[in-house]
Write a structure and sequence with these properties.
Pfam families: CPSase_sm_chain (PF00988), GATase (PF00117). This protein is α/β, with parallel strands linked by helices. The protein has helices at about 35-40, 95-100, 115-125, 135-145, 155, 180-190, 205-210, 225-235, 245-255, 345-355; strands spanning about 1-5, 10-20, 25-30, 50-55, 55-60, 75-80, 80-85, 105-110, 125-130, 165, 170-175, 195-200, 215, 240-245, 260-275, 280-295, 305-310, 315-320, 325-330. Strand 17 (about 305-310) and strand 18 form a beta hairpin. The model has no long low-confidence stretch (mean pLDDT about 95).
């Protein structure tokens, strides 16, 4: 069955339908990863977005039970060039099409993803929606132009109640802005006694758990929309160890007086080079973000930049000059992607130990 992908600039791409027919307007973005589509589809940072893979062949190893990054995927659509109907992998438990149908995610394939990627690189991300072939394109485009981007993505994907993941190590409160399970795995692997809390949990409640440190997770959307969390982080930074990842990095920066801005087409993939400014070492990183911290705005704060992207020189990490607080824009837990940066979780453990003994 044929299906359309319609962009807000009026472009129409005709392809083949797979997945569900739950059409939703979303921000069309591209990801350059060659593998890891299951982790991408279940990454809550994609809430409100339609994801297009630049690597052409997708679905060839199917879907397995172990590699999800969330329990309930919230991506608005999936776009690929070639879909493999018959996957071959010893861990495969279902096809990608079966997964998309079960999770109510629409998909389209047999379209020129290279052309669309080049368009996005030239003009920036734009709103898009899938539609049936008999849709009135003019009406759909008018609806796309009139639609506003979501501003409640974090509220959609965050847990709505506190829950523990017990262990015997450092007590860590994880503020859930759409946390990938890879973050939970890395902290649990290091013996951390976790308490997962909603994004709008007050600082007083978080500190009542007497944590050794607080982890600020990744998440979707514009960081300036999460004002309640910014105020909470302002209170937390002087009182405990804080480590932020992706959205957590942006929120720490905003809490300390820096500014953020929207990137033209974002960083999404598993092959982004980042230099550690302290060591000069280059790490290949997994990334998924559409906003970045304004480097110039750091001058008026107590933050200093620790990591920088080699592709566009944007800020990829910060550290507080007075308090045990640091953050990175990329994903040290990878899932999927390179493991060059997992040492940052060890630094978090070491910083909690140093702070405890200070």
């Amino acid at each position: 069955m044929e299906r359309l992908l319609i962009l807000e600039d009026g472009s129409v791409y005709r392809g083949t339908a797979f997945g569900s027919d739950n059409f939703q307007i979303g921000e069309l973005v591209f990801n350059t990863s060659m593998t890891g589509y299951q982790e991408i589809l279940t990454d809550n940072s994609y809430c409100g977005q339609i994801v297009m893979m630049t690597y052409p062949l997708i679905g060839n190893y199917g879907i397995n039970r172990d590699d999800n990054e969330s329990m309930i995927p919230c991506v608005f659509g999936f776009v690929v060039k070639d879909y493999c109907e018959y996957p071959s992998n010893f861990r495969c438990s279902e096809t990608l099409d079966d997964f998309l149908k079960r999770e109510n995610i629409p998909g389209i394939y047999d379209i020129d993803t290279r052309e669309i990627t080049m368009k996005i690189r030239n003009v920036g991300t734009m709103k898009a929606v899938m539609a049936n072939v008999d849709a009135d394109v003019d009406v759909v485009v008018a609806g796309l132009k009139a639609a506003d981007f979501l501003h409640d993505q974090v509220a959609r994907v965050s847990t709505n109640k506190v829950f523990p993941i017990p262990n015997r190590g450092k007590k860590v409160v994880l503020m859930d802005f759409g946390a990938k399970l890879g973050i939970v795995r890395e902290l649990s692997k290091r013996g951390c006694d976790l308490v997962i809390v909603p994004y709008d949990t007050p600082a007083s409640t978080i500190l009542s758990y007497r944590p050794d440190g607080v982890m600020l997770s990744n998440g979707p959307g514009d960081p300036t929309d999460v004002k309640v969390a910014i105020e909470t982080i302002k209170e937390l930074i002087p009182q405990t160890v804080v480590f932020g990842i992706c959205l957590g990095h942006q929120l720490i920066s905003l809490a300390c007086g820096a500014k953020t801005y929207k990137l033209k087409f974002g960083h999404r993939g598993a092959n982004h080079p980042v230099v550690n400014l302290s060591t000069g070492k280059v790490e290949i990183t997994s990334q998924n973000h559409g906003f970045a911290v304004d480097i110039d705005s750091l001058k008026d704060t107590r933050l200093e930049m620790t990591h920088q992207a080699l592709n566009d020189k944007s800020c990829e990490g910060v550290r507080h000059k007075d308090y045990p607080c640091f953050a990175v824009q990329y994903h040290p837990e990878a899932s999927a992607g390179p493991e060059d940066s997992r040492y940052l979780f060890d630094q978090f453990i070491e910083l909690m130990e140093e702070n405890k003994n200070a």
